[in-house]
Design brief:
The chain is built from 11 helices and 13 strands. It has 331 residues and is an alpha/beta fold. A hairpin with a 3-residue loop joins strand 12 and strand 13.
Length: 331
């Protein structure tokens, strides 16, 4: 049975850098308030006319160049996002067209912050079964166009950024390389603790003027509940992956936690007993890019931490749903 290896990763971060100082001109906040609570100092936001699938296209092309692949080498697309260009169809189809891949299947995954790992699990299953040998896995988000950038919405608005990461996955017969296991979870009892209520098909009609006025069209978060669950579930699911494969935290070259909040990452690190050099964070520069955060963070970690063939890498995420997930792989 083949295993799933990462052939290359590409990223795309918009050119516009939005600092905490800029946000203080839009809402009642401060550099100290934002950094103390989130660790974020700046984030990237798209320019007008720049869409989610545009970011994904740039990240995918960079990955293709790095792998030496042509777009036509891709046999399937798995696209993780909560912020599609349009209500439907999914952005996987828009990316399919932009890459010139008519007929190639495109699956959208809506698991928010855990989306990239849910997508990795799907792609890994396809590769292990022999259905496909080369898959493009994308995590891409545009949050900036859907935030309440006033004092009313500051608790959420200061956190999120835009960006995309794309990983090219390929089948390998090398027993010392590839995805060892993936672990997925959800608990819908907490779905309303981190969500955007409207518009939605639950409402008649699904789009109403009052949705902007009553802020139901903007994301809402019960921050303390999210924090409490994240610092418990993320280390728990990493331990499950390590135990499944007969490994320990000491074996890890690096852990890439979903970049939700630097304070969460710090707590996860302490819980797992990891050294600073075993955890990589870049939320300080990019904010929370949801489905894009793990591939964007992984790409930087590979370069800056010198991740080499055979190194053990763990990926972990927690987010809306609640959903949480982990993956363990040999580079």
């Amino acid at each position: 049975m083949p295993r799933t290896a990462i052939a290359a990763i590409g990223t795309c971060l918009p050119d516009r850098v939005v600092t905490n100082a800029e946000l203080t001109r839009l809402m009642d906040t401060s550099e100290e308030w934002i950094v103390q609570r989130t660790g974020i100092r700046e984030r990237r936001w798209v320019a007008e006319g720049q869409g989610n699938s545009d970011l994904a296209l740039a990240a995918s092309r960079q990955a293709l160049d790095r792998a030496g692949w042509k777009a036509t080498d891709v046999e399937a697309i798995v696209y993780a996002t909560l912020s599609t260009d349009h209500m439907f169809p999914g952005d996987g189809c828009f990316l399919n067209a932009k890459l010139g891949l008519p007929g190639v299947p495109a699956l959208d995954v809506r698991n928010q912050c855990s989306g990239f790992l849910y997508g990795l699990s799907v792609a890994d299953a396809w590769i292990r079964s022999g259905q496909y040998r080369r898959i493009l896995l994308v995590g891409s988000e545009v949050h900036s166009t859907g935030l309440d950038v006033t004092t009313r919405g500051r608790d959420v608005a200061v956190i999120f950024g835009d960006g995309a990461g794309a990983a090219l996955l390929e089948a390998t017969d090398d027993p010392a390389r590839g995805v060892l296991s993936t672990h997925l979870h959800a608990d819908g009892r907490f779905a309303r603790e981190l969500w955007t209520d409207a518009p939605g098909s639950f409402y008649h009609p699904r789009l109403q003027p009052r949705m902007l006025e009553d802020t139901s069209a903007f994301p809402k978060m019960e921050g303390q509940k999210v924090f409490k669950h994240a610092i418990t579930k993320m280390p728990e699911v990493v331990r499950a992956a390590l135990e499944k494969n007969g490994l320990t935290a000491a074996d890890l070259k690096v852990l890439i936690p979903h970049q939700a909040n630097l304070r969460i990452s710090e707590m996860v690190q302490r819980s797992l007993g990891l050294r600073d050099d075993q955890v990589f964070n870049n939320i300080q520069k990019y904010g929370n890019t949801t489905a894009a955060s793990i591939p964007v963070c992984l790409e930087e970690a590979v370069r800056e931490r010198g991740v080499a063939r055979g190194d053990l890498v763990a990926l972990a995420a927690f987010g809306a749903g609640f959903t949480w997930a982990s993956a363990l792989l040999r580079w």
